[in-house]
Specification:
The chain is α/β, with parallel strands linked by helices. Helices cover 31% and strands 24% of the residues. The strands form 3 sheets. It has a 6-stranded mixed beta sheet. It has a 6-stranded mixed beta sheet with strand order 9-10-11-12-13-14, covered by helices on one side. A hairpin with a 2-residue loop joins strand 2 (11-13) and strand 3 (16-18).
Length: 280
């Protein structure tokens, strides 16, 4: 397995630049995505995103979509067999229509919320244009495994060896993290469970971050409980945490990836695990 860190939706917000961090996993002759960022139709018609585009200020560009990023690293989007979603928000699932052949994995609670789409607030986050084509959803009930103290973890060995879908509720009904095994431990993509690195380090938040995460959270109390557990997990030397939007976490992960040895052209032929990879 080889890991690429991709920015699939730069956000030019009034408080600074944010990214939409997507993981691209190379597994033999298959590709797996963790989230997708925005899609090609979002670029062609930003109105698909609804009024929230006037809050996120997405810098939409076809080369920055998941399929554009995949092509930029010399791979074929048609080889994406599976997408594992942290949740179904528009800046995480916008690229799903570009991958109609892929299985879309998510927690069953998130799939139910997307299917029901009750209330204007929910309809703003789960956009019809991203889900109306009838994607091949694989809705996973909570699992029996406890991973690093987090209950309900789902094993996704049929997607990638050792891959885990870890419930991190609060931001949305079925929000999850995705844990990717590495030789030295784990890479955990926590989606929007915590919006910035400072939350993980100290629990303190800038006022704008506090307001933003509270306004968009489905269940703020549960979200805060999840964040307390993530702060404890952030001290675990075996776990490297990244999230969807924090620029510093993205750049640190990219730097580690670029510095990793053994990412040359012979890697894929040998079929060995490398935690590095080209990052764009």
């Amino acid at each position: 397995m080889r890991i690429h860190h991709l920015d699939c939706g730069t956000l030019r917000t009034p408080v600074g630049r944010m990214v939409c961090q997507v993981l691209l996993l190379e597994i033999g002759d298959r590709l797996v995505l963790v989230d997708t960022g925005f899609g090609t139709e979002d670029v062609r018609d930003p109105r698909r995103l609804g009024p929230v585009r006037h809050v996120l200020f997405p810098d939409l560009d076809l080369t920055r979509t998941a399929v554009g990023r995949i092509r930029a690293v010399g791979l074929d989007p048609a080889d994406v067999s599976d997408v594992v979603l942290t949740h179904g928000d528009l800046d995480h699932a916008g690229g799903i229509p570009d991958l109609p052949h892929a299985r879309i994995h998510l927690l069953a609670a998130e799939a139910a919320a997307i299917r029901d789409r009750r209330g204007p607030r929910v309809r703003q986050r789960y956009r019809t244009g991203h889900w109306g084509h009838g994607p091949n959803l694989v809705a996973h009930p909570r699992g029996a495994r406890t991973w690093k103290g987090l209950e309900g973890t789902v094993e996704l060995d049929d997607v990638a060896p050792g891959l885990l879908l870890v419930p991190l509720p609060g931001h949305t009904p079925g929000h999850a993290g995705v844990a990717v095994p590495m030789p030295e431990g784990w890479l955990l993509h926590i989606g929007d469970a915590a919006l910035d690195a400072r939350t993980l380090r100290t629990g303190r938040l800038r006022l704008d971050v506090r307001l933003r995460q509270t306004l968009i959270a489905q269940d703020p109390r549960t979200m805060h409980r999840t964040q307390r557990r993530l702060r404890a997990l952030a001290r675990d030397p075996e776990v490297q945490i990244v999230n969807s939007h924090d620029l510093s976490l993205f750049e640190a992960a990219r730097a580690r990836s670029e510095a990793a040895p053994g990412t040359g052209p012979g890697w894929r032929r040998q079929g060995r695990w490398r935690g590095g990879g080209l990052t764009v």
